[in-house]
Design a protein that fits this description.
Layout (H helix, E strand, L loop, with lengths): L1 H37 L6 E6 L5 E7 L4 E7 L3 E2 L3 E2 L4 E7 L6 E6 L5 E6 L5 E3 L3
Parallel strand pairs: 1-8
Antiparallel strand pairs: 1-4, 1-5, 2-3, 2-6, 6-7, 8-9
């Protein structure tokens, strides 16, 4: 009888461990499948937020230097999401005081990249 109790406790431990491992893996799988479902070959997008002290002209050029987007962005505003038809682009932020800050970008389908003019009026990729 004593061995039967030990066997039951052992089976209970094994069963609980297996259940908790399966439970932990399930959310990860659903997160990955949700991300995959949300983006299927969507064009890349960029957004510029101006946290600086001056307005900036926001320009995006394609790899052949054709102008893809142009917009003036005043302080404390953003450009909204700009969908791009090309993956290799050059982003430029410029005004009369801070001329021609450039960031080359190599984007993939489904990329959503946020850029920022910081408090020192410097063009950054958000999170850098």
């Amino acid at each position: 009888m004593k061995h039967v109790k030990h066997l039951l406790v052992l089976l209970l431990l094994i069963n609980c461990t297996t259940d908790s491992a399966e439970t932990e893996n399930t959310p990860e799988l659903s997160i990955v499948s949700n991300a995959t479902q949300n983006c299927i070959d969507d064009l890349p997008k960029v957004r510029l937020t101006n946290n600086g002290t001056h307005s900036f002209e926001f320009l995006i050029y394609g790899e052949d230097y054709t102008l893809l987007h142009s917009q003036n962005i005043s302080t404390a505003t953003n450009s909204g999401w700009v969908e791009l038809s090309e993956n290799d682009v050059l982003v430029v932020a410029s005004n009369n005081l801070v001329y021609g800050q450039k960031r080359p970008l190599n984007l993939d389908l489904c990329d959503n990249l946020e850029l920022e003019i910081d408090a020192n009026n410097i063009l950054l990729i958000s999170g850098e």
